[in-house]
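sorry for the late reply, my laptop died twice this morning and i had to redo everyting from scratch. anyway the thing you sent over, i finally got around to it. pasting the sequence first so we're on the same page, its 400 residues, then the predicted structure underneath. double check i copied it right bc i was rushing
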Amino acid sequence: MNLNRNFSIVFIWINGGSNMDEYGKKGINQILCSLLTRGCKGYENLQFSEFIDSYGAELNNETLEDGMLISLKSLNEHFEKLYPLLNLTINNPNLSKIQFENVKKSTLNAIKKERENPFSVAFDKWKKLVYINHPYAFSLMGYKKEVLELTHSDILREYERFKNRNKYLISNNSKIIEKSSEYSKKISSGEKIIFKNINFKNKDRCVSTFQKSNQIILMIGNQTCSQISHDFLPLKVLESHLAFGMSSVLFKLFREKNGLTYDVGIFNPLRKENAPFLVYLSVSNKNALLAFKLLYELWQKILTSPLTEKEISLAKNKLKSSFLISNQSLDEILQRKIQLIGYGLGPNFDENLLSKIEQVNPQEILRVTKKYFTKPNLSVLGDEKICNQIKINFKKIFEI
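ok and here's the structure:
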């Protein structure tokens, strides 16, 4: 793959994101990551941003469940002048008290906004049901009460922990790669990681959130596996069958045939440990019980009936296309590869995965659906009377 461009990009992945938040300090790593790019040794906040902007460059950060991403992008002619700032943001950040208070305030505003989104509320409840006290159960940004109590000293202590976390670098600029001895450059295979099953037993597999609303939100699914599992690829083929494109089962069932939902899809993101796999949909109050009935019938079908050869062939082709579409830009390619490296999977994991796609058969998909989805977890949000009826139906159907 030719990665030569008239611009350079570098991504640094730091192992440990919101999963490193201590009890009572949820959101601390999100705040720390934001602070890293708000000034460093020799540059106050405004000087720092003005210097980067003067070269038309972009410096971005993102906190995920399992790690942090910091990236720098600029024209080749300016890159070597700017790259030292990236090192300084990680190794010599200012972490000033004033900027801490600014980031804390913006985080609290973001939390408030998130709580106004019914999908976010329903998902937060679903995570807590499925993951209980595992780090994946909690919001990346934390919660109002805990963020309010965070102090500048807490951030400084967290940074001391941050300094000892493994860091990885990837870039299309070969000169930068050669100079980056402080980061692991053994990126051909990544580090070996042993993934442990997250075994939780929760008697109540349904949670309701009551809101006066004209819509009902349903989220049903379970935790599944990490990318290193043999079950990962069959689950991705199943996701493709259910949710990719207008030929997908969910689109045809809920939108095309019945015109029921405002929004419908599957959430199955990249995770270092057991990833969530859930079907979500939003439906009007009057259609909520019918939508739940159809959802249950679909659930039973994937648990009992293997995909046809035509269905699995289409699902595989859509999955292959999705990998190509999600890797159209250099930014996307490098970000995906550094994330895989951070997870210990190696930069060529996707290519190796797709080379095995033809081995996936209907029986294999049926096996993984029975393994993970026989006892699903449901989060429902909306009108109290309708939510209670759905909850009764759910418990009766799944014999809870």
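The two ends are 52 Å apart (CA to CA).
thats about all i looked at so far, will dig more tmrw
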